[in-house]
Amino acid sequence: MRVYTERDTMSSTSGRSSLDDVVDAYKAGIDVTLIDVNLRRSVDERLANLQRFLEFAEELRRAGRELATGK
Amino acid sequence: MTDFAALIQRLSDAAIEFILIGGVAATVHGSVRLTRDVDVVYARDSNNVRKICDALEKIRPYLRGASKGLPFRLDPPTMTAGLNFTLTTDEGDLDLLGEMTGGGTYEQLLPRAVRIEMYGRTCYCLSIDQLIAAKRAAGRPRDIDAIAELEIIRERSTRT
Lengths: 71, 160
Known about the structure:
The complex is a heterodimer. Chain A is mainly α. Chain A has four helices and no strands. Chain A has helices at residues 6-9, 18-27, 32-39, 43-69. The longest helix of chain A is centred in the last third of the chain and has 27 residues, at 43-69. Chain A is extended, with a radius of gyration of 19 Å. Chain B is 42% helix and 21% strand. Chain B is built from seven helices and seven strands, in the order αβαβαβαββαββαα. In chain B, helix 6 runs antiparallel to helix 7. The longest helix of chain B is centred in the last third of the chain and has 16 residues, at 144-159. Chain B is an alpha/beta fold. The chains are: A mainly alpha, B alpha/beta. The interface between A and B is large, with 33 and 43 residues.
């Protein structure tokens, strides 16, 4: 298996690929304020938020299933 | 639903050699994206494989998405014969990878992985550069958004 290093997958100024342009286009849609808030948290706080986020998402899915089945 | 703390503590407490990858690793670095499972690359030596099987036995690992009732057992012969396992357990979904696309094996990833403190344990986690490299190498369209976010995190982390 080939192992890719960071150098393999990071673009240089002269060697940009279309993937770099696509990634840059996606960056415009990312809310950096959420990232900044998260970067000020500890690792354990980030993981606790992830757990709460997952619980919330699962609750939404459950509610959606109930709505769809009329229960 | 996956209990991230329980799964990671279980692996760590059993002294299993593993590296966190995927969504949980991205969360460690600051990602705000949702992930539903724990992904790890594990060392393939027989001692580590045995420790994995022992540690997971109590939480009933099973092939995720497979039909119920199949004669699957996560034991050393099964793990040795296979490589990557996508599992469901009583503590949630766990992906055990012997090799990661674009990143390689545990031994190949370890030198540039980072040691982190989480849940009161010390674990290895892919560095943000390794995460980005792996996702770029995998080339999946659904990873593009994740790559963009990780690159922003890297830029903003180095600024502070």
